[in-house]
Backbone:
């Protein structure tokens, strides 16, 4: 039986999303954080689009489009305009990478070794989705800079999208729920209501 | 009441929030129009909630009309009304405070009355965001930091809970059929049947994610400890309690605890039996112990209320963790009364003349008669003695320490110039309303403690029975 060409794309995009999540953990430059977040959103949207397209699930395709438009395009552009030359606080790259790797391992262990959603989702795909979500949560909890925390909230939302499969009720509303706080945080940053240099050391480059 | 009319309960405050936002600070006869609109909307919401509670429609895919939803919708409507009355007696509330307060109330009611898990989580997150926005209203740097922490916490808690809902849905998905498998509607009323047919491991994972998200919203320890900045005034969702002008803020904890209660009861027989009850119980006990230790260090009435909220949420979580009908009865009763007392305290804790009211509220929270929280604590302890006798030792120690810490604060709070924030401006001729409202709440809790009417006992028994 021939495997559709699009089928291997979902695990590929999932791996890209996970790699982007690990990059988010270790980067301090604003451009790198925004870029990695955008790549992760594109990958998450790609996974949802492939799954939705293969199953003919309009809700999942809509969720993919919303994620792509908001998390992959609009928010990175707005963030780039707001945070010109501002960077997040320095991070311990080995420490963050170690914690991130531990979380990925934890996610792999947490997923039970059974057929998920009747085979619609592989164990590895779900482990990747959980890892991306947990990496986002860790980013929010560990980093003090507003930019890194916003990237963490977005990463958590991308993890939710990566776990979505055809047939999940109200799936098209999920990205909206996940992105609502990010939009508010972005608004607060845009209006200058938060100190964008919070958490940065005096030595970090300013505007 | 038919379902379309039931939809009015959350829709009235949502519509009022939009109207209040548009009205701004327009005045009629020297008084802000928004104050009247706020009061009228709260009154209409309460009447609609009362009709929903007394003549419930049948539950549907979107509407949940079980006894628990009706009870807490009525409580939210009542607290919303009394809060509006209290704000009526305040001369110069912020223009947007009323709008955000109505938006918050609408989101709480939508979450309580929604049968869809996704809508419940989305509405709970919206309520958190409304609180965070309200916390920003003073527009000071400290208020902005508080609002940022609230928003980030809302995103984190909402995202984790949503992740859990997706996992529950995945666990319940049947084998794929052409063209695509269709999951059963993921509703609260169908959740016990849905998870009964689901995969245990994935259900446990989903349960943990939703529990962590809801616990963060409920300010349960240790999740209340997370702080988004090193110089925050207070951590996580306790921040809005310290800064928001909204008296209804404790409803956020009530809502999140309700989510935990529904989830714990729904999965009790299907998820690994060692997980739901003990996990909720451990979170609750930890919150209670941490709050008991922290209460004695508080020097400000408002911070005292925030820490007490963590402790009360913990005590109710202990009851939910026990999971028996008697424990659920006691937990729902205690949550109801604690919400009334905490909202009363919150309305007065910012004022310099708050001493007597705050003192009475602290006596109530300490679990002393004649207030009804005494009954709640006794019932929870009795349920613990029956279900898990060893729990009585840490529970008793934590409750005793909390009571001692709160009572020890009484002399300082009664003294003139106690450690409170400046007095909020009051409208001439309406100042007494701000005093009457908290005392009305306290009188209700005392009445329920001294002599709870038999119909009310049956009401709470029906709620506990409906949750199995």
Residues:
């Amino acid at each position: 039986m021939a495997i559709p060409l699009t089928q291997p794309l979902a695990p590929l995009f999932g791996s890209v999303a996970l790699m982007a999540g690990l990059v988010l953990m270790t980067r301090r430059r604003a451009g790198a954080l925004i870029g990695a977040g955008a790549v992760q959103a594109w990958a998450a949207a790609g996974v949802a689009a492939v799954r939705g397209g293969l199953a003919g699930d309009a809700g999942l395709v809509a969720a993919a489009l919303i994620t792509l438009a908001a998390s992959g395009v609009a928010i990175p552009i707005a963030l780039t305009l707001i945070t010109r030359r501002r960077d997040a606080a320095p991070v311990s790259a080995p420490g963050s990478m170690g914690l991130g790797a531990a979380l990925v391992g934890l996610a792999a262990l947490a997923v039970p070794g059974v057929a998920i959603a009747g085979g619609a989702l592989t164990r590895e795909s779900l482990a990747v989705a959980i890892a991306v979500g947990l990496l986002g949560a860790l980013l929010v909890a560990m980093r003090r800079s507003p930019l890194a925390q916003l990237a963490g909230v977005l990463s958590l939302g991308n993890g939710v999208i990566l776990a979505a499969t055809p047939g999940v009720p109200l799936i098209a509303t999920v990205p909206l729920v996940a992105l609502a706080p990010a939009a508010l945080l972005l608004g607060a940053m845009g209006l200058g209501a938060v100190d964008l240099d919070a958490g940065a050391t005096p030595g970090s480059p300013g505007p | 009441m038919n379902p379309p009319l039931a939809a009015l309960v959350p829709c009235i405050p949502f519509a009022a929030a939009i109207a209040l936002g548009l009205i701004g600070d327009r005045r009629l006869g020297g008084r802000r129009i928004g104050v009247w609109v706020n009061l009228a909307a709260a009154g209409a919401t309460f009447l609609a909630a009362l009709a929903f509670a007394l003549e419930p429609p049948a539950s549907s895919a979107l509407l949940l009309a079980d006894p628990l939803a009706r009870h807490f919708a009525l409580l939210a409507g009542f607290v919303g009304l009394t809060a509006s009355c209290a704000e009526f007696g305040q001369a110069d509330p912020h223009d947007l405070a009323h709008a955000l307060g109505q938006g918050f109330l609408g989101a709480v009611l939508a979450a309580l009355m929604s049968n869809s898990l996704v809508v419940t989580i989305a509405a709970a997150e919206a309520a958190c965001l409304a609180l965070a926005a309200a916390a920003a209203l003073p527009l000071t740097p400290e208020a902005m930091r508080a609002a940022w922490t609230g928003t980030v916490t809302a995103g984190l808690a909402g995202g984790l809970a949503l992740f859990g809902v997706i996992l529950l849905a995945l666990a319940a998905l049947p084998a794929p059929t052409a063209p695509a498998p269709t999951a059963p509607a993921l509703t609260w009323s169908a959740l016990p049947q849905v998870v009964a047919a689901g995969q245990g491991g994935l259900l446990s994972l989903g349960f943990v994610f939703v529990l962590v998200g809801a616990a963060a919203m409920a300010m349960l320890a240790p999740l209340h400890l997370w702080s988004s900045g090193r110089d925050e005034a207070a951590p996580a969702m306790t921040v809005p309690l310290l800064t928001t002008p909204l008296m209804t803020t404790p409803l956020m904890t009530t809502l999140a605890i309700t989510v935990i209660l529904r989830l714990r009861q729904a999965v009790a027989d299907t998820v690994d039996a060692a997980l739901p009850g003990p996990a909720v119980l451990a979170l609750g006990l930890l919150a209670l112990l941490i709050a008991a230790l922290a209460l004695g260090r508080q020097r400000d009435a408002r911070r005292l209320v925030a820490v007490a909220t963590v402790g009360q949420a913990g005590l109710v979580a202990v009851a939910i963790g026990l999971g028996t009908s008697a424990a659920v009865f006691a937990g729902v009763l205690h949550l109801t009364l604690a919400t009334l007392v905490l909202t009363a305290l919150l309305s007065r804790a910012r004022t310099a003349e708050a001493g007597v009211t705050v003192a009475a509220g602290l006596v109530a929270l300490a679990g002393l008669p004649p207030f009804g929280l005494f009954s709640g604590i006794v019932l929870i302890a009795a349920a613990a003695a029956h279900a898990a006798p060893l729990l009585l030792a840490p529970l008793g120690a934590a409750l005793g320490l909390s009571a001692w810490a709160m009572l020890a604060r009484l002399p300082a709070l009664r003294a003139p110039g106690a450690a409170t924030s400046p007095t909020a401006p009051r409208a001439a001729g309406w100042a007494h309303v701000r005093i009457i409202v908290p005392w009305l709440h306290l009188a209700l809790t005392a009445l329920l403690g001294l002599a709870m009417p038999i119909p009310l006992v049956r009401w709470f028994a029906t709620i506990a029975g409906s949750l199995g």
